[in-house]
Amino acid sequence: MDRRQVAVPVADLLDAPEGERARQVVMGQDVEVLGDGDGWCQVRVLAGGYVGYVWSSMLEEPEEVTHRVTARSTHIYPEADFKVRETVALSHGSRFTVLREVGRFFEAPQGFVPKVHAAPLDPPERDPVAVAARFLGTPYLWGGNSGFGIDCSGLVQAACLACGIDCPGDSGMQAEALGRAIGPGEALARNDLLFWKGHVAWVVDEATLLHANVFHMAVAFEGLHEAIARIEAQGDGSVILRKRLEILE
């Protein structure tokens, strides 16, 4: 396998060279190069299996990463000092190698990352909704997968991957791959998923959803029954599937 890692904070994964954004990848994610030429690489993202095109210059030889960004976003600093000017912003899910700990920072090859915004790759988190809630207020972005912009399926994928659940990138794929169908007589519970045609939302509790949506143009909480009624009234149909994930204990 020709394995590479994403070397930039966020890279658009396009449907063709110079094409439209299909999804995004963030720093430290592993990809398999399927082909390259004219400055482009066709890649398959190892986490989720999505295939698309990125600039070859956005990839680098892989290293063994040790930690991940757990906050919605963070900064890398050139020194272990919060008062110096940051060098770059990183999204949730970005991965990096810790060289050593320096006070309140992890030192990585790229610079210094606040400890409070990161954690080791293992163990995974246990509450997808809690992870998704860190994105509250993040602007809606079609095909987005980062703390700078995200869509409904990106929010589901980010939360699942943080919890060690393999997850495809699009809502249609997620409806097929994730969890088990909830029967008509079963009550909804936290971390369940509701699927519409082209949309997906997290169940927070029996009365509340959390989703990235165009109505709010952001990640937002919304009343479950109000959201179902609103989505149907705007012509996008009713809920077509309810799924329950198997959460790692």
Automatic annotation (TrEMBL):
The keyword Protease applies. Pfam families: NLPC_P60, SH3_16. One of its GO terms (biological process) is proteolysis. GO terms for molecular function: cysteine-type peptidase activity. PROSITE patterns: NLPC_P60 (PS51935). Residues 122-246 form the NlpC/P60 domain. The keyword Disulfide bond does not apply. SUPFAM superfamilies: Cysteine proteinases. It comes from the Bacteria. Keywords: Hydrolase, Protease, Thiol protease. InterPro entries: NLP_P60_dom (IPR000064), Papain-like_cys_pep_sf (IPR038765), PG_Endopeptidase_C40 (IPR051794), SH3_16 (IPR041382). Belongs to the peptidase C40 family. This is NlpC/P60 family protein.
